[in-house]
Amino acid sequence: MPEHKSLLIIAVAAVPLVVVGAVLSILLLGSDASATCNPAAGSSSSVSIDPHAVPAGPIAGYSGVQLVNAAYVVTAGRDLGLGARDQTIGVMTAMGESGLTVLDHGDAAGPDSRGLFQQRDNGLWGTYADRMDPYISATNFFKAMMQVGDRESLEPTIIAQRTQHNADPYYYAQFWDAAVAVVDGLSGVSTGLKAGTGDQVCSGGTLVPGAVNDHGWATPGAGPITSRYGMRVDPVSGAFTRLHAGVDLEAGGCGGPIWAAHDGTVSFAGLWSDGGGVIAVDHGSGVVTRYLHMYASGILVRVGDHVSAGQQIARVGDSGNSTACHLHYEVMVDGKNIDPEPFMIAAGITLGQ
Amino acid sequence: MQWPTGVLAATAVGLLLTACSANSGGLSAAPSASSPSATPSATPSASTSGSTAMPKLDQFTPAPNGAVNQDTGETVGAQAVPTWDAASRAAVTAAATTVLTAFARPDLSYDQWWTALEPLLSAQAQLDYAYVDPANVPARAVTGAAQIVDESSAYVAHVQVPTDVGTYTLVLSRVDGSAAWLTERITPPAGAN
After folding, report:
1. Rounded distance, CA A177 to CA A200, Å?
2. In sequence order, which residues have a C-beta less than 8 Å from that of residue B5 and are 6 or more positions away?
3. pTM for this predicted structure
4. Collapsing DSSP states into helix, strand and coil, what is residue A177?
5. Which of A30, A147, A198, B70 fits as disulfide partner to A173, beta carbons 3.0 to 4.6 Å?
6. What part of A 166-225 touches B (C-beta under 8 Å)?
7. DSSP secondary-structure letter at A64?
């Protein structure tokens, strides 16, 4: 895929620049895979909906004046030059705050909250009339949202929460699918935004289920194997003290699917101290599998999630101690690594195929 | 209020700074010539035990204690393996009560509130909860005993804690058997957000 190749070039070029100055690396956040998995951020992906020509609905359970209000939100976003993903985040937020209804009341935590976005009477969101006006309140929401930096690398619910500062950062994700349906339905445009991604960095792209065998196991990534498990020479001491604690798989290269090897509970998901992405899945019986080198945007699960064998849990990346996109796959028994290849053969899976 | 806008940039710098480390992995054309275990040495049994479809585990040789995982820097054998026992359960319910008590204080200034809350959260949760305005937290008090509702992993606990606005559900995790429980997620009761 050409996008991946160009990203790799950017990433390689970035390395010497980072040594020169950390500031430059902030500009290079795009080397994360997120830039390719979302619609264009600006007006080129912007959608238009005429608030005066909105069908009655229902769409995803919303109808009548709710859909008109959604059209005002989308229009306010377009007028600020925002792309379809940002516009849809506005609709999602208004669904979560008010059900797309201009509320003339607040709630227990904010009795002074008003309107589509439940904006408070604290001077940040304009007059009472502003907060009760669908277009003006949406404009003020978007202006605040535009202060959230690097939105391409953040989940829609996190972008909404960093604008609204509410008490549950993951709250808005449950409204994302309906927001996508309303924006696509009213605009007549397929934005490319996918349901199920309100809590993920990548709003586009597709997830691919892996094949699961009769024992309930799946390969964690496609072959070929590029480096096997085993002891390695410590470059300083010359002794065999360093362990390549897993099997490296090409796994489709940058962005390729990573599958849970077996049913389990996600016990770690995030960045290791060296910046490398790590997911650990606890399968019980003392067995934990680990998946390394994803970018933050390529980690599709959170700690505590229950995953099933063959579920796509991540996208292949090149973070941490890695020189090219690949999957490093580990199997641990009672806290100690074992060679994943014979273990997976015993589970009916031949790695590398 | 001071929102930690530098956090993301710092993360990005960390990602890129480590990208040039040496590694025998990656997309070399052939498996590393330095690998002493180019072929699996054991002849594994294809049989599985019980209904869990788990291979028999005693046929595999664990990595030697003291070996250093070159991808994570961990030392094999250095981490205590967690189990669910009375001490673990007491620790996680205490941790859940402590974090929700610190969280449910909407009258505090942001700085006071965050100073108490931040060390109780996991690294990922610190990134996400840093942007909460405590004035928007609906709960004001923990009103009863915390209860573990999911023990499917000894590294993770789902814990319910009653408050004045209903029952919160928390997810806490620990990185090994001797590590502190840190909070990943604080989910309010439906309708209380």
Report:
1. 12
2. A149
3. 0.82
4. helix
5. A198
6. 166-171, 215-217, 225
7. T
What residue type is B151 in one-letter code?
A: E
The Cα of B147 is separated from the nearest Cα of chain A by a number of Å equal to 16
**Would you give per-residue pLDDT tens digits along chain A (353 residues)?**
333 434 444 444 444 433 333 333 333 333 444 446 888 888 888 998 999 999 998 999 999 999 999 999 999 999 999 999 999 999 999 999 999 999 998 887 788 899 999 999 888 999 999 999 999 999 999 999 999 988 988 999 999 999 999 999 999 999 999 999 999 999 998 999 999 999 999 998 888 999 999 999 999 999 999 999 999 988 888 888 899 999 999 999 999 999 999 999 999 999 988 899 999 999 999 999 999 999 998 999 999 999 999 999 999 999 998 889 999 999 999 999 999 999 999 999 999 98
Q: What is the DSSP string of A128-149?
A: HHHHT-HHHHHHHHHHHHTTSS
CA within 13 Å, CB half, B76: 26
The reply to whether residue B28 touches residue A226, judged by beta carbons under 8 angstroms, is yes
Contact B34 A267 (CB under 8 A): no
Q: How far is Cα A138 from Cα A90, in angstroms, rounded to an integer? A: 7
Q: Is A92 left (phi over 0), alpha (psi -120 to 50) or beta?
A: alpha
Give contacts of B 80-109 with A, CB under 8 A: 80-81, 106
- A124 touching chain B per CB within 8 A: no
Omega within 30 of 0 (cis) for the link into A58: yes
d(CA A338, CA A230): 9
Using the 8-state DSSP alphabet, how is residue A119 labeled? B
Residue of B21, B27, B151 to mutate when probing chain A, most A C-beta within 10 A? B27
